[in-house]
Design a protein that fits this description.
homodimer; alpha+beta; four-stranded antiparallel β-sheet; 8 helices; about 40% helix; DNA-binding
Chain lengths: ~260, ~260
DNA sequence: CGGTCAATTGAATAGAGTCAAGCGTAGTGG
DNA sequence: CCACTACGCTTGACTCTATTCAATTGACCG
């Protein structure tokens, strides 16, 4: 399934499969559509942990397809404190929200070493013209991310720190299950407690205390950049959220004709 | 500019203009596009204050175009407490996020008496096929709402109640300025303090205290379902957010040809 | 082997929640 | 026209979650 020009050092077969997996999470892609997507790819860009994938200053001219590694959108408020608004995993498209704004309100930072593909916005525009079904799939994925943000917003507003942390762990493990085969009770966790705190709106000190509580309750434990889920049912109960169930849309436009 | 079939009791000229205004906030619409939108309209539905425009149970088969009145998305957590995740004003499309989920995680409630137009999802799908430019405009508006949600998420996570309330007032007044001509320093405020609290993740009691502080600081005051902004600069300073600046995209697809 | 960063723990403080009571106003029905 | 009711607003007292500050330990890297 490797396309011509896709055999870069960091954007090879396995990674590309992940991207296709993500894009086809609502409906299988036609061969022509896979080819159409491959045609959009630019050259990959490699970033170190902590680097800015997208700045908050620059007028956005490109989107970024995350090929490898984790990233997060960060909003910095007037008083300097930082909130991470979402975590992006391989296969995610970065920068879509910023299309609506003259200058983005968020920056995207690499949480791990990361590889991105820069895609000019005109390419997305062209995709809307010649591949309405792909456009709608991207639209749907974007809506799903929005639902994800809405849930986190609700948790931030109403739930206590322990619940928020449990929900974050649960949702992250569900998302990772998308592109790893097995349901992982051992998931990689490259985030520091500071970053976890920035995600759930809590100080790093308190994150530590909540992790301690969850560990002593036998729910999860963290060690060596790995999160171990010991009791998934208990975790779901702590989080108080129901399972994430993507829609199975029957009303998508028909697949584009080849050529 | 009234289209045939648009002269309903509650969906007449002025309201329809608002909808067009909202949809053309990123780029002016061609005549054919206005006609294309008018062709999507169903029959209007009138709802009382507090009524559910969209439930959290039903599998979504329709979108809802808000013609008149205010609405809000509400997420109810396991412990029964409620978070309002966004406020919708006339011209907004309701239900787009739910397209991604098998069952929606949020309900949409009318904050005032409201009028909506139900639109089957297939109509949106068709719009992606035959009007890529309109589809992308809806995509952009949806992204703008997502940025709005991200900002509120950041405020919920990092800012104190007073800042959150100030930011909410500021953004609401900016949004209302979109479809009212003058910059309004007297804006209608149909929300109760309980609802304001559900929006900014604070108890109604504390909302009251924060309003009192803002009033005594000479920033805003509330009376008779009306918010008066006495010192807009001070309000912006309290909120600590910069002005909302929509993008002016040059990379949209070309307007659809008539016919 | 020192240096930096992350994790961990404790103590003092503050922001916000909860509970409870009183008040103002608008609507309703006799 | 008045009384009753309901709802939202307002205020005070007490509690608790989470923050901030500070100090210590542990792990990894040059």
């Amino acid at each position: 399934m490797t396309m011509p020009g896709s055999d870069h050092a960091h954007a090879g077969g396995a990674q590309r499969t992940r991207v296709i997996t993500r894009l086809s999470s609502f409906a299988p892609l036609a061969e022509a559509e896979v080819a159409r997507l491959a045609a959009m790819s630019g050259s990959p860009r490699l970033l170190k942990r902590g680097a800015h994938i997208r700045g908050a200053d620059e007028t956005p001219t490109h989107l970024n397809l995350l090929i490898e590694g984790w990233a997060a959108s960060a909003i910095t408020l007037a008083d300097g404190c930082r909130q991470l608004t979402m975590v992006s995993l391989p296969g995610d498209m970065l920068g879509l929200p910023s299309l609506a704004m003259r200058e983005p309100i968020d920056a995207v930072v690499a949480l791990t070493p990361a590889v991105v593909l820069d895609i000019p916005v005109e390419a997305l525009s062209q995709l809307f013209v010649d591949s309405p079904r792909l456009a709608m799939l991207i639209f749907l994925i974007s809506q799903e991310e929005r639902v994800f943000a809405m849930e986190r917003l609700a948790l931030l507003g109403q739930a206590k720190a322990r619940v928020r942390l449990a929900a974050l762990f649960l949702r992250l493990s569900e998302r990772i299950a998308q592109f790893e085969q097995m349901v992982p009770d051992q998931i990689p966790m490259p985030l520091t407690q500071q970053e976890l705190g920035d995600l759930i709106g809590v100080s790093a000190v308190h994150v530590n205390a909540m992790i301690k509580q969850l560990r002593e309750a036998g729910v999860v434990s963290m060690a060596a950049r790995t999160l171990s889920i010991h009791d998934r049912a208990a975790l779901a109960k702590e989080a108080g959220v129901s399972r994430w169930r993507r829609s199975d849309p029957s009303w998508l436009p028909p697949a584009a004709q080849p050529g």
